[in-house]
Amino acid sequence: MNYQHAVLLLVDIQLDFMPGGALAVEGGDKIVEPVRRLMESDRFGLQIATQDWHPAGHISFASRHSGRKAFESIALYGQLQTLWPDHCVQGTMGAQLHPKLPWDRVAALVRKGMDPQCDSYSGFRNNWNANGERAATGLAGYLRERGVREVYVCGLARDVCVRWTAEDAIDAGFHVYFLWDATCSVNPADDQALQQNLINRGVILIRTEELKGS
């Protein structure tokens, strides 16, 4: 397999999603070592990271909505919006990328969730806004201009931001590989259904040891 035209897309590997963080993903720290090996392997022609980067009082925070609790859902712009604990607030420790990973190898950083009135899971597009649109981040164009055809996606959380990123990458015309063991879910009980949904969308599920030279 030729990785010259492939990107390793590292989704939201931040302290708030690690055990002890504000929106901890159980077992999230277990992905750090396999991700580090991928980043240091020189296998991929390009590495890109995304970073959740919310302003204080973001519309997706339960604290923004009187009487609401974290993980409840509300209707927002005609869609269901999960209300999250305050997390990845700009400039806070929890918003930082995991310090044990070699971020100097990353060519670009896409910060998302910066619009206070609109959530953003995917590295490619924001969630729906008041106009019923999902604004592009510019990542798809950036990758195309660098000759990328294949996207290898990993990070946190498997069933939210990594999933949305993978599905949007498919919609943008890329071949997408989902590095299953380099992700963890908020709701692991739904992983089987998630796998099938990804396969149905055309996403290829692989493990890191399946990569050539691993």
Q: Layout of helices and strands, plus pairs?
A:
Layout: E1 6-11, H1 32-40, E2 46-52, E3 73-76, E4 79-82, E5 108-112, H2 139-145, E6 150-156, H3 158-171, E7 175-184, H4 191-201, E8 204-206
Parallel strand pairs: 1-2, 1-6, 2-5, 6-7, 7-8
Antiparallel strand pairs: 3-4
Give the fraction of residues assigned to helices. 10-25%
Q: How many DSSP helices?
A: 4
Strand order of the largest sheet: 5-2-1-6-7-8
The helix-and-strand class reads alpha/beta
CATH third-tier fold name: Rossmann fold
Multimerization status: single chain
The CATH fourth-level homologous superfamily: Isochorismatase-like
Main beta-sheet annotation = 6 strands, parallel
- How many angstroms does the end-to-end distance come to? 12 Å
CATH class: Alpha Beta
Describe the overall structure.
With 214 residues, the chain is an alpha/beta fold. The protein has a single domain, classed as Rossmann fold (3-Layer(aba) Sandwich), CATH 3.40.50. The chain is 19% helix and 21% strand. The chain contains 4 helices and 8 strands; from the N terminus they run βαββββαβαβαβ. The strands form 2 sheets. The protein has a 6-stranded parallel β-sheet, with helices on both faces. Strand 1 (6-11), helix 1 and strand 2 form a beta-alpha-beta unit. The longest helix has 14 residues, at 158-171. The protein is globular and about 50 Å long.
